[in-house]
Design a protein that fits this description.
The complex is a heterodimer. By secondary structure, chain A is mainly β. Chain A has no helices and eleven strands. In chain A, strand 5 and strand 6 form a beta hairpin. The termini of chain A are far apart. Chain B is mainly beta. In chain B, the strands form three sheets. In chain B, strands 2, 5, 6, 10, 11 and 12 form a six-stranded mixed β-sheet that branches. The chains are: A mainly beta, B mainly beta. The interface between A and B is medium-sized, with 30 and 27 residues.
Chain lengths: 114, 115
């Protein structure tokens, strides 16, 4: 069984650019959540996708957007990058959007904005 | 609103000594609680979880945590730590509302095990 994978591992961008991060969910999981982990902090919930629809969002501006594909893989897009967007971006998948189910995390993508 | 407070940002300890990492949560509903571990330059790995039942939960590598509803705590303990336990530890509470779930994390505790 393949776990959650993310690409790329590292990424360097400059302010104002756009970036796309990718996530492949664990086999059998239809729900993907994205988290932002700034240096020295705990992960913060960005949004969640369930069956190709965004079904929950944290306190992040609209320039953070996403997609989920029919195979349940997902993308996180960030437009107009700011220095504060530098962080580790974590993707997590779970078998359903219901309560109580464990979320399985990928290794993350480290984004640096210069 | 639910929240998680990890009371110590760093915990230094000598190898083979016991350790406790403290976590308090705030929630007005039934809680599911988790401890995740993050090794340097890696993602999060689930260490243990409390969903219901016995208030004492254990991991396969010797950690345990006790759910204490009256004190709203979920402290993580290990009786004897190893150098390999050096990592960042995150306590999290599961939030389910509006038809979706999310994890709310504490700020983390850095456990540094010294020889």
């Amino acid at each position: 069984e393949t776990g959650v994978t993310q690409s790329p591992t590292h990424l360097i961008k400059t302010r104002g650019q756009q970036v796309t991060l990718r996530c492949s969910s664990q086999s059998g999981h239809n729900t993907v959540s994205w988290y932002q982990q700034a240096l020295g902090q705990g992960p913060q919930f960005i949004f969640q996708y369930y069956r190709e629809e965004e079904n929950g969002r944290g306190n992040f501006p609209p320039r953070f957007s996403g997609l989920q594909f029919p195979n349940y893989s997902s993308e996180l897009n960030v437009n107009a990058l700011e220095l504060d967007d530098s962080a580790l971006y974590l993707c997590a998948s779970s078998p359903t959007s219901g309560g109580g189910n464990e979320q399985f995390f990928g290794p993350g993508t480290r984004l640096t904005v210069l | 609103a639910q929240s998680v407070t990890q009371l110590d940002s760093q915990v230094p300890v000598f190898e083979e000594a016991p350790v406790e990492l403290r976590c308090n949560y705030s929630s007005s509903v039934s809680v599911y609680l988790f401890w995740y571990v993050q090794y340097p330059n890696q993602g999060l790995q689930l260490l243990l979880k409390y969903l219901s039942g016995s208030t004492l939960v254990e991991s396969i590598n010797g950690f345990e945590a006790e759910f204490n509803k009256s004190q709203t705590s979920f402290h993580l303990r290990k009786p004897s730590v190893h150098i390999s336990d050096t990592a960042e530890y995150f306590c999290a509470v599961y939030s389910f509302s509006g038809g979706y779930n999310k994890l709310i994390f504490g700020a983390g505790t850095r456990l540094a095990v010294h020889p």
